[in-house]
Design goal:
The chain is an alpha/beta fold. It is built from 16 helices and twelve strands. It has three domains: 1-65, DNA polymerase, domain 1 (Orthogonal Bundle); 114-301, 3-Layer(aba) Sandwich (Rossmann fold), CATH 3.40.50; 325-385, Arc Repressor Mutant, subunit A (Orthogonal Bundle), CATH 1.10.10.10. Helices cover 41% and strands 12% of the residues.
Length: 389
Amino acid sequence: MTHTPHELGAWLRLSLTPGVGPESARRLLAAFGEPQAIFAQTEAALGQVVNANQVRALVQMPQGCAALTQETVDWLQAHAALGCRVITLGDTHYPAPWLNIPDPPLMFYAMGQTAHLATLKAEQSLAIVGSRNPTPQGADNARELARSLAASGLTIVSGLALGVDGAAHDGALQGHTGQGLATIAVVGTGLDRVYPRQHRELAHRIAKNGVVLSEYPLGTPPLAPNFPRRNRLIAGLSQATLVVEAALQSGSLITAKQALEQGRDVMAIPGSIHATQSKGCHALIKQGAKLVESAQDVLEELRIPALLTQQALDLSADSNAPGHGPESQEGNAEPSLLRALGHDPVSLDALQARCGWSTAQLQGQLLELELAGQVGRLPGGLFQRIGSA
């Protein structure tokens, strides 16, 4: 549905009216129909649906509403080639999964392959969320899982944040089969800006094979309260939420909590008992979340046919298998160093004690493995082995 400037202005006015939240707005829409009809009512009629303070607010034009309406119209026209549009409650392109959450957005902004939103089903989508500062293994897990699951036909939903979110979007784009949406990014700013800036190119890639969504008006900056609130929308589009890495106090656990409140499943990947980024996942698993080690685990939990026998990412696979990567080279010291690393973060001193090598020899081998993508360098002078798919 394409809105005229007058219709769009009425929707913006309703969403921006101070003191009239989404619940009251939905009651008004149920009583009077389209927003234009709401603003044509008498105060007495409005007073039958909302309280006196809200009535007084409704009869006044919110400050800046006219300018925002014109800015939005201009934005839609200027970015029509990117599939930009405004979608409202009742629109045929409004995603059905959001109609089943407690607080669906009255209207939202979309960029990308928006035609697919009309047929989007929660059963076809999986949310992948996690730390903004993941370990190298955590980012690799998110990317490879998303790639494998997208190859099975799932749409990967996340929040375009640094770390796990970005890796999940990237993996989904790599695994996309060309059918449906590869990935959906639900952001906490206006769609006329990309946050974080480092993901500008990623956002444009998503728009080509997926969609970027926001319930916030154009010009909305990255305000802290907006990100926890948008998490309900990430969870709401998906049959389940998978947490890759998360500290005990993190936005990812908020998403998991909201998924549970919406009746969705929650899954988590375990990690090192020494890593802060694993504490939140371990807490979720203790509370009953599905423990995930492979893409096959996700497909089985979601009761999706096993399409990934050959593609499933086994996160627990032993990267020391014969003939695999740099470890297979005869006479190379890398196999013993990788064995000494194990899978938990470890300090240089601890590695030196395990190997008995000189500092120079150890640092040289670690650098080679790091350049080969076999080892990641963590804050605090720690190193961690990175498993390969």
